[in-house]
Amino acid sequence: MFKRIILPLIFGLGGAAILISLGVWQLQRLAWKEAILAEIDATIAADPVPVPAAPTPEADQFRPVTASGLITDEEIHVLGSVKKIGPGYRIISAFVTDDGRRLLLDRGWVGLTAKETPRPPVRATITGNLHWPDEMNSSTPAPDLKAGIWFGRDIPAMAAHLDTEPVLIVLRETSESEQVTTPFPLDSSGIPNDHLEYVLTWFGLAIVWLGMTAFLLWRINRKTL
């Protein structure tokens, strides 16, 4: 009987060991990802500073900044959808600072019907976070400039279209007396973290694998008897 069960036993225990090791690896990845997300949240919530002279994604991603100037009526409308709200547009405006810089300002969200609502130029002091979103890929449609609709936040293309620096501030707070958009401040909730699901998947498969191995050994044992 031992000769009949040795190969299934080795195969079963070996497969379970591999699945368990993958689950442990994903646990380690989960801890690593949670540490990164905590660091991002801490960066986002730090005290704001003036916009750096030449910010870069590598050094300044999520950096909190503050600036005063003119929010112009030069806009880009980025089509999208927000959970529990529905479809609408992100309003990306050209923002002229008091020292003459032209930057991109993500003012937040408006509904579909508010796309063409006039948003006159307004002076304001804003607080937000620098961001270089990773939204563009080979399947993203090109902007429909005739309809004034974009399908992702392409920083270089938006900067060229509005004649600004390729620097985007995502609005958190504004001194505007009348809010014409719904700001969507940055946080880490939009960053995928699926490692817990992978942990449960690998450990679940290991349990199933061991159960199938035990069932096979039981059947072999019955036939031997």
Concise summary:
The chain is of the alpha/beta class and 225 residues long. The chain has helices at 2-44, 57-60, 155-162, 195-224, and strands at residues 49-50, 64-82, 86-97, 102-111, 122-130, 168-174. The longest helix is centred in the first third of the chain and has 43 residues, at 2-44.
Indicate the topology.
Blueprint lengths: L1 H43 L4 E2 L6 H4 L3 E19 L3 E12 L4 E10 L10 E9 L24 H8 L5 E7 L20 H30 L1
Parallel strand pairs: 1-2, 4-6
Antiparallel strand pairs: 2-3, 2-5, 3-4, 5-6
Membrane topology: Multi-pass membrane protein
Keywords: Cell membrane, Membrane, Transmembrane, Transmembrane helix
Protein name: SURF1-like protein
Explain what this protein looks like in three dimensions.
A five-stranded mixed β-barrel has the order 2-3-4-6-5. It is an alpha/beta fold and 225 residues long. α1 packs antiparallel against α4 (195-224). It has two domains: 2-40 and 193-224; 63-185, OB fold (Dihydrolipoamide Acetyltransferase, E2P). It has four helices and six strands, in the order αβαββββαβα. β3 (86-97) and β4 form a beta hairpin.
Structure characteristics:
single chain, 225 residues, alpha/beta, OB fold (Dihydrolipoamide Acetyltransferase, E2P), five-stranded mixed β-barrel, 4 helices, 38% helix
Number of helices: 4
Q: State the share of residues found in helices, binned by percent.
A: 25-40%
Reported CATH architecture of the largest domain: Beta Barrel
Overall tally of domains: 2
Termini separation: 9 Å
Mean pLDDT: 91
By CATH, the topology of the largest domain is: OB fold (Dihydrolipoamide Acetyltransferase, E2P)
Number of strands: 6
Order of helices and strands: HEHEEEEHEH
Largest β-sheet summary: 5 strands, mixed, barrel
- Output the strand order for the largest sheet: 2-3-4-6-5
Which percent range describes the beta-strand content? 25-35%
CATH class of the largest domain: Mainly Beta
**Which class do the helix and strand fractions yield?**
alpha/beta
Unreliable parts: none
Radius of gyration: 26 Å
Family: Belongs to the SURF1 family.
Organism: Pseudoruegeria aquimaris
Subcellular location: Cell membrane; Membrane
Pfam family, one: SURF1
